[in-house]
Amino acid sequence: MSLMHFDEEQIRKVFRAMDKSQHGGVTAKQLCVVMKKMGTPTSESEARDIVQAADKRGTGMITEDDFVSFMRERAMEFTRQLREAFQAMDTDKSGFLTPSQLRSGLAKQGMTFSNKEFKDMLDVVDVDKSGGISWEEFLSAMQ
Questions:
Q1: 90-142: what fold?
Q2: EF-hand domain: from which residue to which, for each copy (predicted)?
Q3: Taking a C-beta distance cutoff of 8 angstroms, is the pair 3, 75 a contact?
Q4: What CATH number does the domain located at 8-76 have?
């Protein structure tokens, strides 16, 4: 299975920026503040759920290694979901999406585009200009 681009060093930098006190861990409350600054307001309850899911040692805090592991798992899960979506749209099982398969699949998800918007999107997504969207092109476009 292909994995979305996962830059561990960048993830570690994000963690270190969150861990302002440099205690080696981030609490749910600190996570709330960071998520809000990132434009993703998160309730304390949601942050506690994230900390609980990521906290491998049961300390009530996310360590740097916990954070990296959690983000890697999320990237793998997102990639798996994208793979499933790609395979569902690939109705002829060719390994490529035709423009009509892509448009139909996106429409089933409530995403509709004007002809111009769709053509512009295809111009970006179909990197090799083959007329079909490969898994790699699809994955790259979703990053």
A1: Recoverin; domain 1 (1.10.238)
A2: 6-41, 42-76, 77-112, 113-143
A3: yes
A4: 1.10.238.10
DSSP string, 75-111: HHHHHHHHHHHHHHH-TT-SSEE-HHHHHHHHHHTT-
pLDDT band at 128 (very low <50, low <70, confident <90, very high): very high
Q: What is the pLDDT of residue 10?
A: 87
Per the CB < 8 A criterion, the answer to whether 18 and 34 are in contact is yes
pLDDT at 5: 58
Strand bridging mode 96-97 / 25-26? unpaired
What pLDDT digit, counting tens, does each position of 57-77 carry?
888 899 999 988 988 888 899
The CA distance from 106 to 38, in Å, is 27
Give residue for tokens 């998800």.
Answer: 109
Class of residue 27 by CB neighbours under 10 A (exposed 0-12, middle 13-18, buried 19+) = buried
Q: What is the mean pLDDT of residues 42-46?
A: 89
